[in-house]
Amino acid sequence: MRRKRVLPLATLLLCAPALAGTAPAAAAPQTAPAPAPAPASGGPLRILLTNDDGYDAPGIRKAFERLTAAGHDVTIVAPLTNQSGTGTKMSNAPTVTVKHPEPKVWAVDGTPGDSVAFGLAEVFAGKAPDLVVSGTNFGPNVAGLATHSGTVGGAVAALEHGVPAIALSTGGLSVPDPVTTVNAMGPTLDFAVKLIDRLRSRARSGPLLPEGVGLNVNHPVVGTDGKGRASGVSTTFQDPQTVLEPDFTDAGDGTWKTTVKVVLRPAARGGDIEAVSAGRIAVSPMNGDWNTGPVDQAVTSALVAGLRP
């Protein structure tokens, strides 16, 4: 399973009480090949907003309204249809259908990665956005869910192009009714505005995040109506458990019935599941490539030492 490497962002995120949390051990950073753009100091940000639930889903529309109200210049470039679970998939079809149903909204008949690629190449041609925000997703993207998440995949596509990115998700592992989750998107986006303000104020004239680094933000559902505030913020890492386990039953006619179960194991200390389960916001640094840290590289070196072709 693909793992997102934890990078040393504690000093970036935890210097003020409003965003205080617990930081995990960090691996040495590695930079992305393309530099991130630098926003104007203190000014509104140009934001490309995407998701995997579709361009007209409640989460992305609420995000558009809230980020615009906060003074940012927001443009939606998102999938035409629901693309949940597509991960980092990119289409290779010779053509793609793109609709422009209203000002500041583009709907791409493809994955979140396709949407971000089109947005950067065409909608933001000549000047990359200051930030890509993916979400807010309907439901959590923690542990193994993040690995296969189209919401996270949209953020990764931005990182691969050297643009800072944040993936936003709303929900706990015990999924409440849809109305409660939609209500919880309000507090999620209130936090997102504070987080983006923090990044902007600390960036000054530089990039919002270190090169190649993004944030996977998971906001819990708090209260019976979902409108409650989280109990705090934790800097976390992606819990190594899978969460979803498929089960196959042979129907005897060449087809198999498939079901998927949620199977939770004890949460890793300092991981995203632990934080969300405790009613805290999980903020997990991630990168957009397949690299691991120096410790893993040392283990691999010892493993292959002495081997010959």
Structural descriptors:
8 helices; 309 residues; alpha/beta; disordered N terminus; 28% helix; two-stranded antiparallel sheet
Description of the structure:
There is one protein chain. The chain has 309 residues and is α/β, with parallel strands linked by helices. Helix content is 28%, strand content 21%. The chain has helices at residues 10-13, 58-69, 112-123, 143-148, 150-160, 178-203, 272-277, 294-304, and strands at residues 46-50, 73-79, 98-102, 105-108, 131-138, 165-170, 213-219, 233-235, 244-250, 256-262, 281-287. The chain has a 9-stranded mixed β-sheet. A two-stranded antiparallel ribbon has the order 9-10. The longest helix has 26 residues, at 178-203. It is globular and about 50 Å long. It starts with 9 loop residues before the first helix and ends in a 5-residue tail after the last helix. The model is unreliable at 1-36 (pLDDT under 50).
How would you summarize this macromolecular structure in one to three sentences?
The chain is α/β, with parallel strands linked by helices. The protein has helices at about 10-15, 60-70, 110-125, 145-150, 150-160, 180-205, 270-275, 295-305; strands at about 45-50, 75-80, 100, 105-110, 130-140, 165-170, 215-220, 235, 245-250, 255-260, 280-285. The protein has a nine-stranded mixed beta sheet.
Fraction of helical residues:
25-40%
Sheet of most strands: 9 strands, mixed
Q: Tally of extended strands?
A: 11
Instruction: Assess the beta-strand content as a share of residues.
Output: 15-25%
Q: Identify the strand order in the major beta sheet.
A: 3-4-2-1-5-6-7-11-8
